[in-house]
Each structure stands twice: as structure tokens, then as C-alpha cells.
């Protein structure tokens, strides 16, 4: 597999950790170049911070949390600092997204699904699609709601590091995020129907280019494939 330049374009600090951290860790372990872009400044993600903390202080706290998390991935996050809950598809937002895309020249991009629950997520997804020429994979939605993956990445080996990265966002979680994250990734692993896969992240490929082969872009393992895949209707 040739070396790839991978970009995760995520809406808020902590979205990358929840949705794609395991896959990015796997890319890194396989020698690929990884970049994390965080579009929003996080000022409205107060989490369980007291009301006395200002919006500017929240931005600073969330930047620091994102840097600690990304350090575990071995990268420095890129902040676009668009205002939380104010993302629209206007020229200024588009220019920020397309400029960073042109600077990074990715081979593959990960972003949120266009049917995600959060307006910032949906809007960023459309901005990415309108500015990217590289193949785009949509990440899972919150708790996997209304999302049917086409492809899965085995992240079993990287699950503990993924959880440790998520825990860096202490301002956002009043409780350990372990259970929330494990439930989704365990469910996706069960869909893979392979006993050795304990945790997985699921993705959909945006089919803009018919010639794109997902297996050439996603980090993978050399599993021994079964001689025959039995249709669901024929299984006992």
C-alpha cells in the first residue's frame, strides 16, 4: 500500500476522537501521513464547565484538550476557529475549508455524514464535499443512528489509545466516555462477522468517482478471506 496523506476534517474538538481516532491511529502505525483539522472553535460546548467560564476561556480549554489528544496521535491539530453553531455555506467558510485542503493536498479525507444530527456536522460535510477533489469517507453518526457503513476498519489494537484520547476532553464528559464509545465500536465489529475483530469503525465512501477503490485507501490487515460468502438467506 503506497504512503497516503490522510486528512480528518472534523467539526468540533472531540469529534475526531469519537468517530475516527482508531482509524487514524492505524494509518499512523502503518506509516501514513495524518492531519487533523478542527473546523469549529468549540465555544458553545460548555459541557460541565461552570457558567463563570467565558466563551473565550472555553475556546482556550478546548484547544488545549485537542492538542493533548492529538499529541497521542503524533500530530498537531489545525484549528479553523469558525464559530460554534454559526456554520453556514457562505464564501468565508468555504474559503477557509478549501484553503486548508489546497495546503494539505490529501489523498483521502474523513468527515461527518451529511445526515448527521448536528447542523455544524451536516454543513461541514457539504463544505468538504464542495471543496475536496480527493475521495471522501463519511464517519459514523452519533451512536450509529441512521448510518449503514459500507466499509469497516478493525481498530481493536488501538482501542485503548482511542479511549485515552477521548478522555483528554475532560470539559465535555462528566463521566468516562468509555461505555459510549465502546458500544458503537463493538456493534460495528459484530457487523464484520470476524471473531478476531473486537472493535471497528464504520465508514461510507462518497461515490463521486466510480474508479475509486476503497480497499486501496483504508488501512487494512491481511486477513484470510473465506472461500465462499454465504448469503444471509442461506444461513442457518
List keywords for this structure.
alpha/beta, 236 residues, seven-stranded mixed beta sheet, 35% helix, Rossmann fold, globular, 7 helices, disordered C terminus
Fold topology:
Blueprint: E1 5-10, H1 15-19, H2 21-29, E2 33-40, H3 55-73, E3 78-82, H4 91-104, E4 108-111, H5 119-131, E5 136-139, E6 151-154, H6 159-166, H7 178-192, E7 200-205
Parallel strand pairs: 1-2, 1-4, 2-3, 4-5
Antiparallel strand pairs: 5-7, 6-7
Helix pairs in contact: 3-6, 4-5
Q: Would you kindly provide a brief summary of this structure?
A:
With 236 residues, this protein is of the alpha/beta class.
Number of helices: 7
Q: Please indicate the percent range of residues in DSSP E strands (runs of 2 or more).
A: 15-25%
* Structural class based on helices, strands and sheet pairing: alpha/beta
Would you identify the CATH H-level superfamily?
Answer: LmbE-like
If you had to describe this structure to a student in words, what would you say it looks like?
- There is one protein chain.
- The protein has 236 residues and is an alpha/beta fold.
- The chain has one domain: LmbE-like (Rossmann fold), CATH 3.40.50.
- 35% of the residues lie in helices and 16% in strands.
- It has seven helices and seven strands.
- It has helices spanning 15-19, 21-29, 55-73, 91-104, 119-131, 159-166, 178-192, and strands at residues 5-10, 33-40, 78-82, 108-111, 136-139, 151-154, 200-205.
- The chain has a seven-stranded mixed sheet, sandwiched between helices.
- Strand 2, helix 3 (55-73) and strand 3 form a beta-alpha-beta unit.
- Residues 224-236 have low confidence and may be disordered.
- This is PIG-L family deacetylase.
- It comes from Holdemania massiliensis.
- GO terms for molecular function: hydrolase activity, acting on carbon-nitrogen (but not peptide) bonds, in linear amides.
Amino acid at each position: 500500500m503506497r504512503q497516503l496523506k490522510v486528512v480528518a476534517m472534523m467539526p468540533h474538538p472531540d469529534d475526531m476522537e469519537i468517530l475516527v481516532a482508531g482509524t487514524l491511529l492505524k494509518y499512523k502505525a502503518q506509516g501514513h501521513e495524518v492531519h487533523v483539522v478542527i473546523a469549529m472553535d468549540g465555544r458553545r460546548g460548555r459541557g460541565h464547565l461552570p457558567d463563570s467560564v467565558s466563551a473565550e476561556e472555553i475556546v482556550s480549554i478546548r484547544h488545549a484538550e485537542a492538542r493533548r489528544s492529538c499529541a497521542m496521535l503524533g500530530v498537531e491539530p489545525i484549528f479553523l476557529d469558525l464559530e460554534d453553531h454559526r456554520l453556514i455555506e457562505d464564501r468565508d467558510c468555504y474559503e477557509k475549508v478549501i484553503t486548508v485542503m489546497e495546503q494539505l493536498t490529501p489523498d483521502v479525507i474523513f468527515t461527518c455524514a451529511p445526515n448527521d444530527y448536528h447542523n455544524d456536522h451536516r454543513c461541514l460535510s457539504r463544505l468538504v464535499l464542495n471543496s475536496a477533489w480527493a475521495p471522501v469517507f463519511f464517519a459514523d453518526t452519533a451512536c450509529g443512528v441512521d448510518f449503514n457503513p459500507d466499509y469497516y476498519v478493525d481498530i481493536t489494537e488501538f482501542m485503548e489509545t482511542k479511549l485515552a484520547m477521548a478522555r483528554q476532553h475532560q470539559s465535555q464528559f462528566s463521566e468516562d466516555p468509555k461505555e459510549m464509545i465502546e458500544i458503537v465500536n463493538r456493534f460495528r465489529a459484530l457487523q464484520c462477522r470476524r471473531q478476531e475483530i473486537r472493535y471497528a469503525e464504520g465508514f461510507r465512501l462518497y461515490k463521486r468517482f466510480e474508479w475509486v477503490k476503497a480497499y486501496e485507501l483504508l488501512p487494512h490487515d491481511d486477513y484470510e478471506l473465506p472461500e465462499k460468502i454465504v448469503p444471509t438467506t442461506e444461513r442457518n
